[in-house]
Amino acid sequence: MNKLIVRILIVGNILSAAVSFYFIREMDWNDEWGVYFKPLTTDQLLMFVSVLNTVPQLFAMKLANKLKHRATDKFKQNL
Which of 30, 44, 51, 79 has its CB 3.0 to 4.6 Å from that of 40, i.e. a possible disulfide? Predict the structure, then answer.
């Protein structure tokens, strides 16, 4: 897997989590949100969802890389 793509994936997920964290903090005054996120706090749920979002991205990247190599091998065999 290309290291640059993995770095972009990590930086993108960190930026997404940071923006989400900012907006969660902006809504901190609303006590009704606490009930919505039970049994986790808003911060814990944000971290949990951020990690969960990374898993399918990694699987998709590995599958795309595998398919790319398979197509390249078939192309080389046909030459």
Answer: 44
